[in-house]
Amino acid sequence: MKITALVENTSRTGLPVEHGLSLLIRMDDGRQILFDMGQRRLFAENAERLGLDLAQVDIAVVSHGHYDHGGGLHTFLRLNAKARVYVNSHAFEPHYSFRDGRLRYIGLDADLKGEGRLVLCGEKTWISSDLILFAGADGCCLKPVGNRRLYGPARDTNDDFCHEQSLVVKEGEKTVLFAGCAHGGIVNIMERGHRVAGARFTHVVAGMHLMESGLTEEAERRWISRLAARLKEEEGCRYLTMHCTGTVQYEALREEMGGAIGYLSCGETVEI
Description:
The chain is of the alpha/beta class. It is about 20% helix and about 30% strand. The N and C termini lie close together (about 5 Å).
């Protein structure tokens, strides 16, 4: 399995970047999965720069209803005529972020909800025998502090992230979890994922929403240390993070976790 970051917040290859996420997953049997689509068109432009043909994508997934993950949906539907797009049934509800003293709309284009190739997903969706989507998380362990700034579907209600879904990919001896921002808390998402997959994860590929926590530097470091300790309990699991984890926060995780965690920047490909 090869994973290429088409959109991510950082680049070590010189590709243009934006705040967002888009991953192209190429499986050993030839199937291609697009996991998220960034804000608008950059994922497609970067794919072209890398010589990757998004018209050949077989399956697409939008991890949750935020513009930096599903804003490129219209672009993808125009470029690709065959793939079904799996979106949680709550993803097109309104979503907001509170910053600079006001609420800002950060949701998807609701006009796209009726597109014929969209598959609206619930608690669990079997795409195939080796691809499973699931919504939600088990428990309340170390949920991202930055969630307190996020609202929806009502403007005065904190988001409960019922619109967030994660992808399990089984390939040979590998069981891989893909999560966009892990707003439900990556530990909690992994717990639910273990039940859904019927196996422990060999790899976790996820943003962890650690940036812009609003905590003091000391408090954030303690919080990250607790998270690292929990992640290390998954013996043999390897983590690949990006996007909303934040580079400073990633470095703090890496100090605690060593080679068990890596960072995927825009334009880079890893094989697992």
